[in-house]
Amino acid sequence: MDSFDFLNVGFFTKASVFPGSLGTFRYRFARTGWPGKPDSTIQAWVYENTSFELAKEIETETFPWTEEGVEALKGWLRQRLAERGSAPYRIPYPMAAPCEKP
């Protein structure tokens, strides 16, 4: 079982937007339409370890909301994960300046 095996056509009926992460690998999905209807899609984004609203390095792709489209989405996510990598979750605080001792 891999990290994206939980994704299937039915998964996307639960909500219209889905954020998620695997450690520092961040992703987000948004769906339009309904399975079996024309022009129904799932849009996916992957981005750096920050909130979606603050992300600057965003990749996006749109897939048909079909069995084949979900399989293509999972393949795209696996490829992005392999390229971007992931580390255990951490909060990306800026480095503080060293304190001077009196």
Describe the SSE topology:
Blueprint lengths: L16 E6 L2 E8 L8 E7 L11 E6 L2 H18 L18
Antiparallel strand pairs: 1-2, 2-3, 3-4
Number of strands: 4
Q: Assess the beta-strand content as a share of residues.
A: 25-35%
Report mean pLDDT, rounded to a whole number: 85
Strand order of the largest sheet: 1-2-3-4
Largest sheet, if any?
Answer: 4 strands, antiparallel
Shape: elongated
| Rg value | 17 Å
Any overview of this molecule?
By secondary structure, the protein is an alpha+beta fold. Helix content is 18%, strand content 26%. It contains one helix and four strands. It is elongated and about 65 Å long.
Short description:
By secondary structure, the protein is α+β, with helices and mostly antiparallel strands.
Question: Which descriptors apply to this entry?
Answer:
4 strands; alpha+beta; 102 residues; 18% helix
